[in-house]
Amino acid sequence: MAEKFERHRQPWNAAELQKLHTLAKKGMGLKAIAKALTRTEESVKDRAKVDGLTIAKLR
Q: Is residue 20 within 8 Å of residue 47, measured between CB atoms?
């Protein structure tokens, strides 16, 4: 069963946005960023798209 996220539909705060930008620039993968921010991969992907960030596609 998938992990349950208690932060459903919570707005992004400034610290989370800063961390997202930092991790994306370091070249971390989507799964790692989502885990570091305790957000879903879909949420991270959507926010990165809004901010114009590219997330590394790790294999």
A: yes
What pLDDT digit, counting tens, does each position of 40-57 carry? Answer: 999 999 999 999 999 988
Structural tokens at position 24: 């994306």
Query: If we measure between CA atoms, which residue out of 11, 18, 9, 23 comes closest to residue 55?
Result: 23
What's the predicted TM-score (pTM) here?
Answer: 0.82
In whole angstroms, how far apart are CA 26 and each of 2, 3, 4, 55? Answer: 27, 26, 27, 10
Query: How far are the Cα atoms of 2, 10, 32, 53 from residue 45, in angstroms, in the given order?
Result: 18, 15, 12, 9
Label residue 44 exposed, middle or buried (CB < 10 Å: 0-12, 13-18, 19+). buried
